[in-house]
Amino acid sequence: MEDRDVVIVGAGFAGMYMLHKIQQMGMSVTVIERGDGVGGTWYWNRYPGARCDVESMSYSYSFSEDLQQEWVWPQRYAAQPEILRYANHVADRFDLRRDILFETTVTKAEYDEEAKRWTVQTETGRTFRTRYLIMATGCLSVPKVPELPGLDRFAGRVLHTAHWPHEGVDFSGVTVGIIGTGSSGVQSIPLIAKQARHLTVFQRTANFSIPAWNGPMRAEREAEMKRRYGALRQRARTSYAGDYTYADEDMVSILELSPEERELQFEKRWQEGGFHYQYAFGDLMVSEQANEIAAEFVRGKIRATVKNPKVAEILCPKDHPLGSKRLCVDSEYYETYNRDNVSLIDIKADPIVEITKSGLRTREADHRFDALVLATGFDAMTGALTKIDIRGRGGVSLKEQWQDGPRTYLGLAVAGFPNLFTINGPGSPSVFVNMILACEQHVEWISRLIGHAEASRCIEIEAGDEAQEAWTRELSESADKTLYVKANSWYLGANIPGKPRIFMPYVDGFHTYASICENMASKGYPGFQLS
Ligand code: FAD
Ligand code: N01
Q1: pLDDT at 67 over 90
Q2: Can you give the pTM of this predicted structure?
Q3: Helix axes 229-237, 510-522, angle to 10 degrees
Q4: Pocket test for ligand 1, best of 58, 137, 239 (most atoms within 8 A of CB)
């Protein structure tokens, strides 16, 4: 049994910054990470085309002025290898590796009420005893392999986008099938299509995608942004999306614009690319009428891009509001369907029956391919936490406590689980916003609370039941006022059979959330019991 003040699980952007803060506080700490390197999401998701969809100058740490001034992002939206290089640079620059235990998976964590310590068990047999346990396990870190009959019979290679081989995959001369047209599918399909002999895309739900218009970072733009970095980061902290590119004061209302003004606005946002299209409009996610007008503009773009009208119609999303499933941001996604070596199968109309030895059988046809790519997503938000056998007071299991859906206080703590914190946990804005900023906000808040407990000689910090219930109620009431609840999305757990349908992220924006947290800290943490 190895003793620590703090154990952190996960060495993605959340775990790395948490480690840096705890090192600065002079406490003993170990980060336990399953992979053999840092970077989390960017360590695992190495599929062709993987890149961020928040601009890199924004999707990066802001805590060190020197770091943000010295790092050069070569593109507007960095690709996965570049983001991973950045994560490794941060680990070296801040001397993080000395406290990270790689290639080790946490399997169990149990709270000893008498000793007031967590016991953390790992797959390798090493066991830690710690006063604070911080779960930086990620919202999108447990890949979902769908239950498709016959999957184990397929003779070719099966690849999941979130478990991509480190050495890469060469699809030259190969026929490929891909299931899934969410962000991972939309990013990888154009690149796989350029390499493979033939690519067959199996689409269940058509998703809205907006072009990224990615390109090289212009030196003068970079210099100008770096000159104003402090102010830009401040603008991000006071915005809905936690991103300086989309400030609330620039939002307009679709329904208040004339049809001509709307077209101009939609075209402008389309040309800016990515989330500009979602965050430019204040009524987009609350008014079905406004949403439908914006959605129809995107459908018009799809029809204008895809030459085969039947294929274009299959690609036009019609069964959920724009943005209610996470918007995709692409590079030549719709154009890819004009290639001769790409076919699209609508598996809502012609469902998959089984995977066969040589491909896949739908109700109406046999499809043959050499390799199958699963771009089928994640057990999001709760998956990584419920995979670990976490037991709080009285041996109560977190998984059992959450069997009707997660309940947290601020997405940061859970009643009955003292001194356990979740970074970007369910109930926090996390996946709705620029997540590196969200990591920073949580890490700084948790460090401050631990510092406060240490200074006031408190041994236990625990979320109160009432505060947790009130937060959970507020979360779902807020979500119910929006169109986010109108899709079968992973936000609601709808992609995992049997998972309770509870809207998991906090929808009222980064700025509102951060000010609630700040207010609580300044009032001495009401809702928490410190003893
Ligand atoms: P992660 O990066 O997921 O790290 C969690 C770590 O915990 C992992 O390394 C995992 O191995 C480890 N871990 C989990 N369980 C255990 C265990 N039991 N034992 C040991 N280790 C464990 N967000 C944005 O804001 N903008 C984007 O553009 C964006 N792009 C994305 C692209 C992809 C392909 C994906 C999948 C997600 C993207 N996200 C994006 C969300 C992304 O997950 C976050 O931005 C961010 O990287 C999360 O950091 P994290 O440290 O919280 O979690
Ligand atoms: O996963 P998804 P993802 N049979 O769940 C389909 C982040 N991210 O990895 O919609 C057939 O979105 C499923 O169909 P349906 C981002 O937050 C960001 O793509 O359920 N199809 C869907 O099409 C994102 O939202 C980037 O009907 C099945 C797809 O698989 C999140 O990660 C890039 C199926 C899964 O889409 C998850 O994205 C990548 C089945 N049994 C990821 N099961 C950026 O661009 C699932 N599907 C920054």
Answers
A1: yes
A2: 0.98
A3: 90
A4: 137
